[in-house]
Amino acid sequence: MTLLDLYQQAKNQERPVAPATAFIREVAQVTKKSEIAIRRWLSGECEPDKLTKDVLAQHFNITPEELFRKK
C-alpha cells in the first residue's frame, strides 16, 4: 500500500462530529426544529415556544424555568 493509498483511505473515513454540533443536532431532533432555530435560541436571538420548552425540559430532566433562565 502506497502513501497515496493510505492518504485516500484516511480521506474517505467518516469525520468525528464536534460535541457542540452533536448537542445542537440532538436538540433539533428532540424538538423537530431546525439546527438554525437551535442556534438562534442559544445566541439569545429568540426563544422557543412553551410546548418546545416543555419538551426540552422533559428530555433534559430539568424545569423549563431553569433551562431558560435569564442571566
Task: Tell me the β content.
Answer: under 5%
Query: At the fourth CATH level, what is the homologous superfamily?
Result: lambda repressor-like DNA-binding domains
Number of H- or I-type helical stretches? 5
CATH-defined topology? 434 Repressor (Amino-terminal Domain)
Q: Given this structure, which CATH class is correct?
A: Mainly Alpha
- Computed structural class: mainly alpha
Number of strands: 0
Low-confidence stretches: none
Spatial shape: elongated
Mean pLDDT: 94
Using the CA coordinates, give the radius of gyration.
18 Å
Task: Report how far the terminal alpha carbons are from each other.
Answer: 57 Å
The biggest sheet amounts to: none
* Structural domain tally: 1
Question: Which architecture per CATH?
Answer: Orthogonal Bundle
Element layout with pairings:
Elements: H1 3-11, H2 19-31, H3 35-43, H4 50-60, H5 64-67
Helix pairs in contact: 2-3
Short description:
The chain is an all-alpha fold and 71 residues long. It has one domain: 434 Repressor (Amino-terminal Domain), CATH 1.10.260.40. It contains five helices and no strands.
Report on the structure:
The chain is mainly α and 71 residues long. The chain has one domain: 434 Repressor (Amino-terminal Domain) (Orthogonal Bundle). It is 65% helix and 0% strand. It contains 5 helices and no strands. The chain starts with a helix and ends with a helix. 7% of the residues are buried. The model has no long low-confidence stretch (mean pLDDT 94).
